[in-house]
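Running this now, will post back.
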Amino acid sequence: MENKQYKVGVIGATGMVGQRFVSLMENHPWFDLVVLAASSRSAGKTYEEAVGARWAMETPMPAAAKSLLVMDADLDAEAIVDLVDFVFCAVDMAKEDIKALEYRYAKLECPVVSNNSAHRWTDDVPMVVPEINAHHTAIIADQRKRLGTKRGFIAVKSNCSLQSYVPALNPLKELGLEQALVCTYQAISGAGKTFTTWPEMVDNVIPYIGGEEEKSEKEPLKLWGHIEDGKIVNATSPAITAQCFRVACQDGHMAACFMKFAEGKKPSMEEIIERWTSFRGPAQELELPSAPKQFLHYFVEENRPQTKLDRNLEKGMAVSIGRLRPDTQYDYKFACLSHNTLRGAAGGAVLLAELLCKQGYMA
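Update: finished.
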C-alpha cells in the first residue's frame, strides 16, 4: 500500500502550515491530496481563490490543488471523513476549539495527524519525532479504547523549536547527559508571518514568544518518556531550561545549546560527534519517503550551520549541528539548526503519517 494508496485531507489548508502541507503533498509517492478544508470564510471557494496573494511558499501553488473547492472544516466534517483515509490538521483556533475539532474527526473514525499543540499533553496521544520515539505510537490502542473508536485516533508532532536541539541531545542521553540550557532564535514563519505581513520584524529581535519556553523545556520529557498503564509518563531528565527569541529571519530555527554530563561520565568531543554522525532512527531504517538519509549533520567549519545556507539540507528534513567546544560553566556547547515549517511543522507531521502508515495504523 505504498503507491498513492492513501487519500488525504488538510484541515486548516489556507494558513502557512496548511500551505506547506499542500506543497508537500505534490508528487508524494504515498499520499493523494483529495480534500482541503478551512473556516467558513474560505468554504465554497477554490483553493486558489481562498488563498490568493497569501500563498507564502517558495514553490508555486500545486496545479492539482488550485481548483479544489475548499470545504468547511466544521460543518462538512462528516462529508470530509467519507472522502479521506486520514487528515492533517493545522487550524488556527482557540486551543479548546482545536481539541473539540480533532476529537470530532477521531470519533468519526478518521485518524488525525496534528501540527497543533492542543493535544500534546493528552497523556494517551502520542507526540512523536519518528527518529526518537516511534514506539510511542503503541499508545494509540489505549486512546482508541478511551474514544470508543476502531480506526480513529489523534497523533501529534512536537513544537517546532525542539527539532533543532532535541535530536542533537537524544543520542547523548545514554552517555550521562543531565542538564541542557538552550537559547532559540526562531524565524517569523513560526508565527505564520512573512516580512510583508509583519514589517515590524524587519531589523528586529523580540525576546519573547508566548508559551514557547515552557514547551521547549517540557515537551522533550514527553518525547523521552515511557508508556505505563495506558499513559505516556514523562521522563525526569535531562533537565532543560530555555529562552526563546523571535529573529528577523523568514525560515529556520537556530539554537545555542549548553550541556552538562553526570560527574565522571563526560564524553570526549570525538565520541559526541561520532554519536551524531552515525545516528539512525526508525525513519531511516524504514526508509520513509520524507526521511533524511542522514538525520544529524555535523559541520566542522567555524561559521556553520547558517540559516540561509543550511535550513534546506535534505529537503529541510535534516538537523544541522556545529561549533561543538568545551564550555567554562557547562561541559560543552554547540549550535544547531532545523527548518521550522518543514522538519519542525508540516514535514515532521508528514513523516509521522508515513510512520503510522508503515506501522499499520492507517489501514
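The longest strand covers residues 177-186. More later if anyone needs it.
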